[in-house]
Write a structure and sequence with these properties.
The structure is a homodimer of 190-residue chains.
Chain A: E1 2-4, E2 7-12, E3 18-24, H1 32-37, E4 43-46, E5 51-52, H2 57-66, H3 68-94, H4 97-114, E6 118-119, E7 122-124, H5 129-136, H6 140-152, E8 156-159, E9 162-165, H7 168-174
Antiparallel strand pairs in A: 1-5, 2-3, 2-4, 6-7, 7-9, 8-9
Helix pairs in contact in A: 2-3, 4-6, 5-6
Chain A binds a DNA duplex (30 and 30 nucleotides) through residues 96-97, 128-130, 138-142, 144-145, 147-148.
Chain lengths: 190, 190
DNA sequence: CGGATAGTTGACTTGCGTCAATCCGCGTGG
DNA sequence: CCACGCGGATTGACGCAAGTCAACTATCCG
């Protein structure tokens, strides 16, 4: 479990390009599924130096047998991971570069808020434009153009490792961003 | 669990377009995750009339507590679902229309083989070009153009509800298709 | 001071979307 | 039995969002 710093999980294609599947911020578990199942279907790379807490796999597994409720909580976390991938998938397939970029910045903001590292005003973000490009299915050059637009249209500024929202809800409604899939309370789990 | 026919799981966007997240063929479980967790994050629609076997949720859940191994098998199935989404995600983000379409046809072929409904020669496929478009993040018109190319270049023919491969491995290597993520034996599960 | 790494900007190209016809097979109803 | 409508497939002309190529700048660091 990450306690400090950011990481990314990604996959390389034969043609040399890579696709970042998700970013991991403090509080996230790394490789939940792969640990449970002993499969590795993508690689992980730090974005910044990362401090992490190690969790003993067998203790982790056996805790599931003891507490059915705990098991479901973790299943829920794993499930959120998938929901984020689906969300990103849909974004890449059906939204233009502008909306897509905004969505990613909003989602990361949301998640940073959840762990107390951000507010509606903004958050510290160590990603480069290349990271964003690899996550969004764009080129770094185009990401740059989009970020400029986001700035000039008065929505977000991303500079010097800091994302600053000029009206979070404003942007959210402009690009039709819906946060439900990250919300534990919103789910019907009990 | 589907015993006959095809279905699709999809999501609508506010702008009216829809994205098909996955297709479900005979042998597939519908809504594994959502049943386990009682959340619904996408809708399901039949492609053809579907015959399905119903599985009692509580019996299903309690069987997990009795058999740890069974639980992991189902986790593996759920995990394969996610792997397919990731694969599709990467395809849309990083591959052109031609490769992407080929990948989908190959993946479906692979899956049909696994349940004994297809061979390397081909399989029956009830999807329309609109279905493909909604799954691939393309327009039906462009799907049509791509299918023509696939035909003219001697790779696959998709006509009258039948996909015919003119050399499965041929196409697979041409578009860099790798089947590992579907392969139970390939995983390190035990 | 040189050499990475990241960001920025402009000119040009291209893959895919959009719009608009046309065609075909099928079912339905007059 | 024919007319019609409809869903799906096909094709062409045209436009645009994003990619590519190519500089140039800024900053940090050894």
């Amino acid at each position: 479990m990450i306690s400090k710093g950011w990481a990314s999980s990604y996959k390389f294609l034969r043609n040399g390009s890579r696709q970042i599947v998700n970013f991991h911020i403090p509080g996230d578990f790394l490789g939940l599924r792969s640990i449970l199942l002993r499969i590795a279907d993508h690689s992980i790379e730090p974005v910044t130096p990362v401090a992490a807490a190690e969790i003993d796999v067998s203790a982790f597994r056996s805790s599931f047998q003891r507490s059915h409720r705990l098991a479901r909580s973790f299943l829920w976390v794993a499930s959120t991971d998938e929901a984020m991938v689906v969300e990103r998938f849909i974004g890449v397939a059906r939204r233009n570069a502008f909306d897509r970029t905004a969505h990613l910045l909003l989602e990361l903001g949301e998640r940073m808020k959840l762990v107390g590292l951000g507010t509606n005003a903004g958050y510290d973000c160590p990603l480069t434009q290349y990271h964003l490009a690899d996550a969004l299915g764009l080129t770094a050059i185009h990401v740059n153009r989009v970020l400029r637009q986001l700035r000039e249209r008065g929505f977000v500024t991303f500079r010097n490792g800091r994302v600053t929202f000029h009206g979070f809800d404003n942007l959210a409604s402009a690009v039709d961003y819906n946060t439900a899939y990250l919300d534990y309370k919103g789910s019907k789990i009990n």
